[in-house]
Amino acid sequence: MNKISCxxxxxxTVEADAIVNAANSSLLGGGxxxxxxxxxxxxxxxxxxxxxxxxxxxxxxxxxxxxxxxRYVIHTVGPVWRGGNNREEETLASCYTESxxxxxxxxxxxxxxxxxxxxxxxxxxxxxxxxAIQTVKQFLQTSxxxxxxxxxxxxxxxxxxxxxxxxx
Length: 168
Ligand code: APR
Known about the structure:
Layout: E1 3-8, E2 18-23, H1 32-41, H2 43-50, E3 60-64, E4 72-77, H3 88-105, E5 110-113, H4 125-141, E6 148-153, H5 156-165
Parallel strand pairs: 1-6, 2-4, 2-5, 5-6
Antiparallel strand pairs: 3-4
Helix pairs in contact: 3-4, 4-5
Bound molecules: adenosine-5-diphosphoribose (APR).
C-alpha cells in the first residue's frame, strides 16, 4: 500500500530508509538542508560524496547515511530557478523520479524528501509543491514495490502548501 504524507521537521531526524538531500552539482556540501545533512551524518558522508565525482541537475546519487538515522542519503541536484524558461519544471520533476528509482533499486521502502530547490535555488514554492506531489503520485502508480513517501517541510509556508494539496 503506497502512502504519501507531509510533516514539519528537520529531515536529519527522520528515520526513513532513505532521506533525500537537495545538493549542488559538486556534491561537496553547502548550506541549507545540504549543510544540515552533512553535519548530522558526519565527515564520512563527504568522503563518500567525493568518490561520486559530482552529479548533474535532475539526476541523483546514493551514499550511506553514516551517523544519520536514515540508512541511505540520496543526493539530488535541483534546478536553479531562472524564470521558468530553462526546463526548470522538468528538471525538478526528474529529481523526484530519479531519487525514487534509486531508492527502489536499493531496496528502500520509505523515502523522505525536503522541498527541493525552494531555498537558495529560488524555485517558487507553490509550483515546486505541485510538481513534487504530482511526480511522486505518478511514480507510485507504476512502482514495483509499495513505498511510503514523506515530504519533510522545514518552514510553515511549505507545510501549509503541501497540506492544502495532499489528499486527506
Ligand atoms: N530539514 C528539512 N528541510 C530543510 C532543512 C532541514 N534540516 N534545512 C533547510 N531545509 C529546507 C529549506 O527551508 C528549503 O525549504 O530545504 C529546502 C531547500 O532549500 P535549500 O537547502 O536552500 O536547497 P535548494 O534550494 O535546493 O538549494 C540547493 O543550497 O545548500 C545549498 O549546497 C546546496 O548549492 C545547493 C543549494
